[in-house]
Design brief:
single chain; alpha+beta; 2 helices; two-stranded antiparallel sheet
Length: about 250
């Protein structure tokens, strides 16, 4: 039976949706429920886009083209799974990764290997339901899927890009203007700081002079002698004259 389902890459943004060796597919849930039994298996057929028209479905599992023959047969089958894995009630991831198995060389030629894709393609894919007696149902081929192209090491210039003379001149002018502006700003800031410091120092000196200024004390005037007192020779002070009368006996 030919099913109307068309495989496709998820349209939503997805990390690693397309790489140089892999691509993601939407999982075809609820597509094979009426065409497959529990014992049937579902395969993914991968072929170069220009070889999909000549692909012939294998009659048994022994005729399945392996991944290792892709360079010669231009197609292979992979991602073998029970039909129940695609049922509506199956809880599983909604995305399949094609080309994500890097250990295919150790699995042998008869195992359904899901190895990295050898070139950007483009590729076409379809799902094929196989039972005990051969193919039972299949989907339509997908649109061509083109992988990302990896950059060649020979195209990478190891030397850094050289600036033109115009760029060098402009950069020099901008650097000079920046230096002049920085010097002007520093000068303005320094002048303002120096003026503030001088003003503070002058205020402190005036305050100090005001704080240490003494009051004016007029010179002392000679005091008048008390009545009846006469001066003695220098250094002996003043004394009063002895009253008249007889002198006491010595």
């Amino acid at each position: 039976a030919l099913l109307p389902y068309v495989p496709r890459v998820p349209p939503a943004a997805l990390l690693g949706k397309l790489t140089a060796t892999t691509f993601a597919l939407e999982k075809p849930c609820c597509v094979f429920d009426r065409h497959a039994n529990a014992s049937d298996t579902v395969w993914l057929v991968v072929a170069f886009a220009n070889a999909s028209a000549t692909f012939r479905n294998p009659l048994s599992r022994a005729d399945v083209p392996p991944y290792e023959r892709l360079p010669t047969t231009h197609s292979y089958m992979t991602l073998e799974a029970a039909a129940t894995a695609y049922a509506c009630s199956a809880p599983s991831p909604a995305v399949l990764r094609v080309g994500g198995d890097t250990a295919c060389g150790s699995q042998g030629g008869w195992d359904p290997c899901n190895g990295p894709l050898p070139s950007p393609g483009p590729y076409r894919v379809k799902f094929l339901v196989m039972g005990c007696h051969g193919p039972k149902a299949e989907t339509r081929w997908s649109d061509p899927i083109l992988l990302r192209r990896a950059g060649s090491p020979s195209t990478i210039d190891p030397a850094p890009a050289r600036c033109s003379s115009d760029v060098v001149v402009i950069a020099s002018i901008l650097a000079g203007l920046g230096a002049v502006l920085a010097a002007a700003v520093l000068s303005a800031v320094g002048a303002e700081a120096w003026g503030s410091l001088c003003h503070r120092d002058s205020g402190t000196g005036a305050g100090a002079r005001r704080s240490y200024r003494t009051h004016h004390i007029p010179p002392a005037l000679p005091q008048p002698l008390p009545p009846g007192c006469r001066c003695s020779p220098p250094g002996l002070g003043c004394f009063a004259p002895r009253p008249p009368g007889p002198r006491p006996a010595e």
